[in-house]
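Form P-L/3: holo structure prediction, ligand adenosine-5-diphosphoribose.
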Amino acid sequence: MKHIVVLTGAGMSAESGISTFRDSGGLWEQHSVEDVATPEGFRRNPQLVLDFYNTRRKESFDTKPNKGHIGLAEMEKDFKVSIITQNVDDLHERAGSTDVLHLHGELSKVRSTVDPSLIYTLTADNWEIKLGDKCEKGSQLRPHIVWFGEAVPMIEEAMHTVQKADILVVIGTSLNVYPAAGLLNYVKSGTPIFLIDPNEVKASRNDIYFIKEGASAGVEKLRELLKI
Ligand code: APR
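OUTPUT (holo model):
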């Protein structure tokens, strides 16, 4: 079975109604990254950060996977499919994908601020964390999200996965943020790379097959192209 590795970003979830970051009206137009997505921001105003992620968590629990997520899950019938996502929602899992690596953390998880191995899962019925919610060691809980300036613990594993790809597919990412964007450079030479995005994406290589569509239509087109 051929091994397809798929790198996804916020655009993958756009058709489920979740805002991207850098499109017009995106999250980084409504909020300052420094205030809500850095350790300094959390130290300065933890309530603001907890509220930001509580809102996104609630939204994420209220949305559904779109045809793009579902199409990728269905491809597991014909391919080994590894998803490496920058997204913190669980829409790939809820669509049925069985191999999902979250590079930037997961909205549905929170963790201790003194012991990062203490991770707790929230649910649609219990989706909020507040100031004063503590881990078993008595420290404040924080979103299990990789903030700007923090290490990306899963990047090594992601690099190894990309190196094993027979086909690389990139969906719904502006390729603005490293080290995620650098993953394209870890494919074996000669590996076909498909990029699905309704807009132009500047990629530092010229051997990419662009599918200028949204995620749902793009995955459908990709499946047509890969029909063996
Ligand atoms: N289908 C597919 N792609 C889409 C769609 C759609 N319906 N709508 C928009 N896009 C594309 C945009 O054209 C853009 O290229 O999705 C991409 C979204 O880019 P960003 O908003 O920059 O999101 P992303 O690339 O995932 O950001 C990377 O930055 O802020 C951090 O941690 C955050 O994981 C995030 C990282």
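COMMENT: The beta strands are 3-8, 80-85, 100-102, 105-112, 119-121, 141-145, 167-171, 193-196, 208-211.
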